Amino acid sequence: MREGRLLAAIARRFAYGSSSCIHTAAETSGSAKEAVAAAFQKPPLPPKIRLTWGRVLTGTLLGAVIAGGAYVGTRDEATISAWTFEAAKYINPLFRLLDPENAHKVAIWASSHCLCPRETRPDPPVLEVSVWGRTFSNPVGLAAGFDKNAEAVEGLLGIGFGFMEVGSVTPVPQEGNPKPRVFRLPEQGAIINRYGFNSEGIVAVAKRLGAQHGKRRMAETVNSAITTNTEQRVLGGKAGPGILGVNLGKNKTSEDAAADYVQGVHTLSQYADYLVINVSSPNTPGLRKLQGRKQLKDLIKKVLAARDEMQWGEEGPPPLLVKIAPDLSKQDLADIAAVALSLRLDGLIIANTTVSRPDSVIGLVHADEMGGLSGKPLFTLSTEVLREMYQLTWGKIPLVGCGGISSGEEAYVKIRAGATLVQLYTTFAYEGPALIPRIKAELAACLERDGFKSAQEAIGADHR
Q1: How far apart are CA 345 and CA 105, in angstroms?
Q2: What is the similarity comment for this entry (predicted)?
């Protein structure tokens, strides 16, 4: 009897992994042979499970989450950050399957929901730059035009930009130009757009930036309460771990451009680490005429007065910059330099998109579309304008180099030509988040190769 029971238990455990899974008559049969036979009988079948795509998908996602959690649990933050940026390389090409404007909307949505990679690795110390009393962990920024309505500030700064610019923001909401208005020239890594300052307006943008500013202040309060090092240095600005610029535009139907920019200053400057007057978009009729010597001088005076009449704390008012076009004559550039020096402008962004069509894009599909051309074909032209403006201003005014940058080497060329900071847009639209750590690593390598201890040392090196 005992032998029968023992053999039955062993058989059950071997066959099904647990003696509790089955109950047979073997325990009371009194025969070892009968007990073994009973143990190997098939257990009753469970109720038939109906598999559906919903259940399969749920199971797959659950498995992915569990596997991802296990992976994350065995790796440090730097490793995870590197892995997510690497994964982004394979995801970003999917955006090219969409219409350019729809792809732009999806990218903003993903960034606003923090579905993009987050950089947790510190920037190389060699990339640090100080200007306008602010410290940038790196000089690589996102140009205006990508996040027009300040929908994704936290997510985009989290990718690893040293700074970013929202806008252009107009006082009153406007749709912009009719669609289609964005065109890819993939052979040259270029884009032509004629958006025409499509904007949700300053009220909507102020609401978003106000919420972001509140989160930043709350985080600072918590950090100051828990830290014991009162002298710790904090990188970043009003929006978080990065500097935030607000780019101001005018409404298409507005007859008083200065009033539009003043309204933007009054409403949005409290949330900005720096302000930009955009007078160089080719897609708003008459806007580029504001770059004339007299018009620009009158405009800047009014905007500066509006900014300075507001009450500011110890850090003072946000710096004021002007964004100019790359299609200006030498006389136009000389006039702008004279105005900037005489009014002690805080900086110039060089440059916006071009209405010209370099030989490299002639004959390509969409090359004849109206609008501003950006991307790789703009690099040489915008860098030449940057170099000339540095000479015209004697290196006394900080310059932001924008236009055609697609590598760390090209960012380095801009800095040597006179740029304190650089901005990206089109190449970021093509390559996605993976571009940012690559371009910073390449820039750091260029600086170290040529013996510069910091990016600050390399500014304007070609002129020395």
Answers
A1: 34
A2: Belongs to the dihydroorotate dehydrogenase family. Type 2 subfamily.
116 and 436 in contact (C-beta within 8 Å)? no
Percent of the chain beyond pLDDT 70? 78
Which pLDDT belongs to residue 10? 41
Q: Tell me the pLDDT tens digit for each residue of 147-165.
A: 999 999 999 999 999 999 9
Which is it for strands 320-324 and 163-169: parallel, antiparallel or unpaired?
unpaired
Residue 393 corresponds to which amino acid? T
Give me the pLDDT at residue 24, please: 39
Output the CA–CA distances (angstroms, integers) from residue 270 to 206, 266, 310, 312, in the order listed: 9, 8, 9, 9
The two structure tokens encoding residue 119: 């950089």
**pLDDT tens digits, 322-368:** 999 999 999 999 999 999 999 999 999 999 999 999 999 999 999 99
What is the C-alpha separation between 454 and 336, in angstroms, rounded? 30
SS (H, E, C) 53-69: HHHHHHHHHHHHHHHHH
Would you name the residues annotated as active-site residues?
Answer: 281
Q: What is the mean pLDDT of residues 8-36?
A: 42
Q: Which domains does the chain have, with CATH numbers?
A: 2-39 (no CATH), 94-224+234-463 (3.20.20.70)
The neighbour count for residue 254, using CB atoms within 10 Å, is: 19
> Are 165 and 276 within 8 A, CB to CB?
yes
Residue scoring higher pLDDT (320 or 220): 320
Residue type, 76: D
